[in-house]
Amino acid sequence: MYANHEFKFTYGNHLAAKVVNWMEKRCVPDPTFPASRISSIYYDSRDWIILREKLNSEYLKLKIRVRWYADAHSSQLFPSNFIEAKYKIGSARKKVRMPSGRESDWLATAPMYLPDFMQLPPLLRSLGVVLRENLFPAFQVSYTRRRFIDPLTGARLCVDQDIHVPRTNPLMISTTRPVCMPVGVVEYKQQGYDDFPDWLSQINAFQGRRAAFSKYLASFQHITNFQH
Fold first, then answer.
1. How are beta strands 35-44 and 60-70 bridged, if at all?
2. Which candidate among 58, 130, 167, 184 keeps its CA 20 to 30 Å from the CA of 152?
3. Of residues 123, 136, 78, 85, the one with CA closest to residue 104
4. pLDDT in tens, 5-20
5. Bridge-partner residues for 86, per DSSP?
């Protein structure tokens, strides 16, 4: 498990290319994974207990998801994938994960109503994650991520664009229409440091603003037209 402080900024998704260009002038690309396509299936209970933690702005929040990756240009799937638990404790984040034991191609194509998907969250109990509810796959969120390193602080930054929901579990959500987000997200992550550099505030030029943005919550709201 590792902990860090995370700050998020939303921006107009149609300006993603300009945001990436702006970031390239201030940071260096991540030497290991500079870009990839990320897909996650988020889990929740039948009565949406995890979603309600976010809606109620509770101090301790938990997300459960299975995540896999693909090449940002060719969309070729990578073999590595993980079942994850992500905690938010105030402004700090902690995440634990382990291999899902499934093929990435299966995760990307199998219907989410299959019972096999429910077997993945209980794997996290071996890492000390407490699951008080039966969790079901709810929907998939996919986006392109570009990763950078701030050369002055060593902090990690991510530019996420083209966030969309390509499919849902009909046992949880009846709608099947794909949803695309009008915003992208910049994430700043730094271990043991609870502030961000001044230059990052310049994202205002790209319709940017600091926001407590959750891809899970925003996707649910767009799918269901839910207003809190």
1. antiparallel
2. 184
3. 78
4. 788 999 999 999 999 9
5. 63, 95
Express each pLDDT in 63-85 by its tens digit: 999 999 999 999 999 999 999 99
Residues 54 and 220: beta-carbon distance below 8 Å:
no
Angle at 19 between CA 212 and CA 5, to 5 degrees: 35
Tokens of 114: 């299959």
Closest among 166, 69, 163, 173 to 113, alpha carbons compared? 173
Q: How far is CA 10 from CA 144, 172, 208, 212, in A?
A: 15, 28, 5, 9
pLDDT tens, residue by residue, 107-152: 999 999 999 999 999 999 999 999 978 999 999 999 999 999 999 8
Q: Give the number of other Cβ atoms within 10 Å of residue 180's Cβ.
A: 11
Tokens 């260009």 -> residue = 21
Residue 54: other Cβ atoms inside 10 A: 20
Residue 204: how many CB atoms within 10 A of its CB?
12
pLDDT at 159: 97
Write the single-letter amino acid at 23. Answer: M
